[in-house]
Amino acid sequence: MTTVETATGTAKTMVLNMGPQHPSTHGVLRVLLELDGENVVTSVPDIGYLHTGIEKSCEDKTYSQAITLTDRMDYLNPLGNNLVYCLAVEKLLGLEPPKRAQYIRVMMVELQRISSHLVWLGTHAIDMGAMSVMLYCFREREEILKIFERFAGQRMMTSYIRIGGVALQPPAGWREMVKKFVDMMPARIDEYEALLTENPIWQGRLKGVGYLPAETLVALSTTGPGLRAAGVNYDNRKMFPYSSYEEFDFAVPTRTESDCFARYLVRVAEMRESIKIVRQAMDKITDDGLIKADAPGIIPPEREKMKTEMEALIYHFKIFTEGFSPPPGEAFVAVESPRGELGCFVASDGSPKPLRVHFRGPSFVNLQALPFMVQGQLIADVVASIGTIDIVLGEVDR
Amino acid sequence: MSELANANAKVVAERIRAWNAEAVAEIIEYRGEITIVVPKQLLRASARYCKEAPELNFNLLSDITCVDRFPIEPRFEMNYQLVSIARRERIRLRTALTGAIPVVDSLIPVWPGANWLEREVFDLFGITFEGHTDLRRILLPDAFVGAPLRRDFPTEGQR
Q1: Closest CA to A332 of B9, B81, B77
Q2: pLDDT score for A295
Q3: Taking the model in full, what pTM does it have?
Q4: Residues on chain B touching A398 (C-beta within 8 angstroms)
Q5: CA A221 vs CA A125, A227, B62, B72: distances in Å
Q6: Omega before B71 cis (within 30°)?
Q7: Who contacts A170 (Cβ-Cβ below 8 Å, separation ≥6)?
């Protein structure tokens, strides 16, 4: 073994600083790698570059105001963040949104799941050297963002899901728009698979890379596609159904190889399942109906009522000046985000502002597994492993 | 949570009580969630029992978080969300810590995944985890002074 004499003694290994500006770290992740040649001896992730104190800021806002902050955590899954926060507050309040609103929520978060997986697939393919896939993925993602814009007026930070329901009635012509998308999408996924699944370079870069046994993944609290690629069938939509998921017919794709390639296959299969769920949700959403629960004092009244009813005007004033006060207590809700178990813990002390809001970000917890995945592997495999963990630094750092 | 799952969660509390009567200080039921309040000194043993007893089998530690109830004492409440994947069940363990001694046993020996979750609480609440292998700040810079998620820390920051 060649050694190098340094000022501090004989060194066999070197320390390489990867990130926080390295493009394959998907934002501002820094990993300190101790290398023996090109093999990783140890690795230490360093996070926090994007910490914005969202949990602290939530304590200074009313329950409704905090929704806009949740959009900005996992910026590839804003609707999922809205959903978990609203479900937690609704649980505190003992409020159940009307079925129609629940189906709209399901449709929106499943579209969001597809768009998130598309960004993942495109950027991961770039990391692995397949440039063109990203262009196709972002083309389809654009269609989803257009749907969001029609529904919510915003492409990304929609804040569409509100406490007690959703913000707006579905726009005119939404059915044709969504139908056009779900009819087009399966063939497009076939295209991505034609580019990648049988591609020998893609297989060579992913197969057998980043392996961890299922027991280790569970011990490290990993959830989401990473865990399902190891054969553990854990999906909150099936295990602890929320927002009427129990009424939908879909499969939870799993693999057993637990390597980067298995995680890729699981995500692609999940996109196909999400299309199925969107189709079912479209059938369930009636043309007319309620989108908000009937809870005066919590849900802002309709504009028309405010102009004719004194009571509605008072409630409107109260909600937007003071907010509403859930009874003291705590609630924890977990949903299945594209990255895994997204949890929200809300504690109320009976005042109009939350005592504590905590988000259990799947990116944050899943990233713990990185040093175990890359130990003894090559630097290039570190890139593949970071990619298939699918971190969003906005959620890691919050 | 359905009525049935709720009944199951109560069974869990009874099992823990049968294992060690002192381990269950209180059972809180709210909005269908069961919280088992555990004395601080029995936290790690109770957590290990929840994980390893085959009839409980809480193999996944989902989340660790803290609530600061300042100025009420004991001000800190540690909340541990456990999941049993095989039995499709969730439960919450809770233990109270005083402002004078914000120290609790680390759960890394039980679930290695507790590592970063505990570091986050250490970073933002200033709670020390005894037996933690790598207790450093995780989100904030090392030079930061204070624990920002404590209720007596102003939202706009300290000058």
Answers
A1: B81
A2: 85
A3: 0.91
A4: 139
A5: 27, 9, 6, 32
A6: yes
A7: A104, A151, A285
Q: CA A361, CA A345: separation in Å to the nearest integer?
A: 11
Token look-up 């709210």 returns: B30
Strands ordered across the beta sheet of B26-30: B26-30, B33-37, B89-97, B76-84, B60-68
Q: How far apart are the C-alpha atoms of A92 and A81, rounded to whole Å? A: 17
Query: In this structure, which amino acid lies at residue A278?
Result: V
- Peptide bond preceding A213 in cis form (omega within 30 of 0): no
Give the architecture (CATH level 2) of B3-101: 2-Layer Sandwich (3.30)
Determine how β-strand A9-11 pairs with β-strand A30-36. Answer: unpaired
Overall fold of domain A96-323+380-397: Cytochrome-c3 Hydrogenase; chain B (1.10.645)
Q: How far is it between the farthest Cα atoms of chain A?
A: 86
Per-residue pLDDT tens over the stretch A172-216? 999 999 999 999 999 999 999 999 998 899 999 999 898 999 999
What's the CA angle centered on B127, arms A73 and B52, to 5 degrees? 85
- Domain definitions of chain A by residue range: 96-323+380-397
The verdict on a CB contact (< 8 Å) between A330 and B30 is yes
Separation of first and last alpha carbons in chain A: 44
The single-letter DSSP state of residue A243 is T
Residues of B in contact with A219 (CB under 8 A): 111-113
Residues of A in contact with B115 (CB under 8 A): 368
Q: ipTM of the assembly?
A: 0.90
Return the HEC string of B64-104.
EEEEECCCCCCCEEEEEEEEECCCCEEEEEEEEECCCCCEE
Asked whether the beta carbons of residue A220 and residue B112 sit closer than 8 angstroms, the reply is: yes
Q: CA–CA separation, A292 vs A340, rounded Å? A: 28
> Is the backbone peptide bond immediately before A20 cis, with ω within 30 degrees of 0?
yes
Task: Write out pLDDT tens, residues A319-337.
Answer: 999 888 999 999 999 999 9
Residue A334 Cα distances to A239, A309, B62, B96, B153, angstroms: 11, 38, 9, 23, 28
Per-residue pLDDT tens over the stretch B95-144: 999 988 899 999 999 999 999 999 999 999 999 999 998 888 899 988 88
